[in-house]
Amino acid sequence: MKETLLDEATLLAEFEAKIDAEIKIEPRDWMPDAYRKHLIRQISQHAHSEVIGMQPEGNWITRAPSLRSKKILLAKIQDEGGHGLYLYSAAETLGVSRDQYIQWLHEGKAKYASVFNYPTLNWADIGAIGWLVDGAAITNQVSLQRTSYGPYSRAMVRICKEESFHQRQGYEIMWKMMEGTKDQQRMAQDAINRWWWPALMMFGPHDSDSAHTGNAMKWKIKRETNDRLREKFINKTVPQAELIGLKVPDANLKVSGTDSFGEPTYDHSDINWEEFWQVVNGNGPCNEQRLEHHVKAHQDGKWVRECAKAFQNNNDSINR
Ligand code: BYC
Predict the structure, then answer these.
(1) Which residue among 42, 74, 117 is best mutated to probe the pocket of ligand 1, counting the most ligand atoms within 8 A of its Cβ?
(2) pTM listed for this prediction
């Protein structure tokens, strides 16, 4: 009722006052159209990333080197599916159905993190994904816990708890390989060589080239910019690599100073942006394969969704 009585300028002022006061925006609250659209895009793309991200790791479930590592990998991949569900649910509160989100993904209208368009060639890649890809994701998601939209923020709190276990799982794999044979050490180094740059790309374009960062920061959807988060990740991860004897594949990497905690900060090379945009725009090594697999899995699961709906309709009519 309130919405129809107040004019747009008053509603906007109320919305902005809430943002300034760090009060979360909830699904039934009035919000500017552009804020809603921004969230629809970002949260759904985040959800797609979680679900598509299950594919590169799923490739290694049947070839995990021990029962322990198989169980851990299975649990991790299942967690990623759960993260997708929290995020689709958060995105649905914005008034768009999950079917619509999936359709946009299948039509190529929605994106997902570029990093999942690279192949997992051997077991060390599973270590590199957990350590670097989940490590990059947590850096971003810890910050997103303070995002201004309530359902997105609450999903992030839960997701971060699980992601920190994922990051340790990956680091443990790398650490064990570095304590192993020369061949295992070579595999671990080869994996960081291939995953370092795609992990840095996860943070998106430089702030100066990022179309959405301005509004995202103004509305507190993002709490830190792409470049700031990328620097945090580099500062945190380089010492972890050095501790276990891995070399970060960047000839220009060197300590530039220290942060406010006395920890080192680094100068480094720039990302190959040509490669980044090629992968984002559908031309990476596995883009086609990832999407085809998702479309097929969605079609194969049609009967399950129909049964679930029929069961629910049946229950509803019994309870009526
Ligand atoms: N990949 O203006 P910008 C996980 C697009 S999964 C692809 O900076 P924004 C895991 C961007 O969408 C968790 N596209 O955009 C799962 C935009 O295109 P549109 C992954 C990218 O939104 C399984 C355009 O470039 N985390 O943890 O302000 C196993 C301009 O960019 C990328 C998330 O999804 C990219 N890397 O900032 C293991 C985090 N970068 O939409 C692990 C949530 C940019 O105009 N998302 N683009 O067509 C975000 O925080 C932000 O959306 C981004 C981009 C930082 C990614």
Answers:
(1) 42
(2) 0.95
